[in-house]
Amino acid sequence: MLAPPFDRRAIPAGAALSEWRASDGWTIRRLDWPPVAGSGTRGSLIFAGGRGDFIEKYLESFAHWQGLGWQVTAFDWRGQGGSAGDIERGHLDSFDPLVADGAALIADWIDATPGPHALIAHSMGGHLAMRILAERRPALDAAVLVAPMLAINSAPLPELLAPWVATAAARIAGKRPAWREGPAGSPSAKFRQVYLTGSAERFDDEQWWKGEQPRFSLGPPTWGWLAAAYRSAAMLTPRALAGVSLPLLLIGTDKDRLVSPSAIRRAAGLVPGAELFMYPDAAHELLRESDPVRLDAFARIDAFLDRHAPAR
């Protein structure tokens, strides 16, 4: 008898939501999902999503890893999802508090969970994870960065000009949105789906969750957020990347319209021993893409972790 399809619109049985507190008292929403009782633990895996993401967007991905025996943990970054608090929507003055949150949460998680320990991070989460790997050296066994925002895809602006434009705009209109997003069904919403995922069903799941939880709708970034992102990306210097010493897999897509494919390729050449795979024709959210891409990405990630973070 076939198992019923996974319900992407419900927290699965056995997964528990809780709160983790940052050093300044900020409440970070997290999810912990242990493997099925009696099946043994493959290890512990923590997932960090991108800008505007929330735990529920990746429940299907968590189910894949949990089904392989991983104890899965995920969280919402400060200022988004269920960790929103009173921060201004879509705005950040600096990425440094997020780096500090992620590093401290990962350290606590490593101390409290069985190894091996693996980190998987997407988009902005991949950017923050790379900074954590370079600056904090967490005691992880392996890490996978999926479509990491190591630089913003600034097209049509030249890569060297874009940071100057964002910085100048932030001085004048730092807390104003850098662009507008239309309502569901509008041309801009359809365009957003195209550059995020080829799976209309998974895109619709995200909109459903936002309808159920309006606080999950972060909206476009401000000019100040963009300027902060460029400043943070500048910290990922060749010297910083060369100091990342754990096994690292970078997966991206050459058609990415949000993050820079060339920056991902550059980083893979600078991190010692890093592995790289680039899809020639896929959208940004590789783990929420149509099944041919999504399942291939999982197979590559699983094989990498089997090599570099084998079960103990």
TrEMBL record:
Coiled-coil regions listed in the entry: none
Domain of life: Bacteria
Residue ranges crossing the lipid bilayer per the database entry: none
InterPro entries: AB_hydrolase_fold, Hydrolase_4, MAG_DAG_Lipase
Serine aminopeptidase S33 domain location: 41-291
Pfam families attached to this UniProt entry: Hydrolase_4 (PF12146)
Protein's name according to its UniProt entry: Lysophospholipase
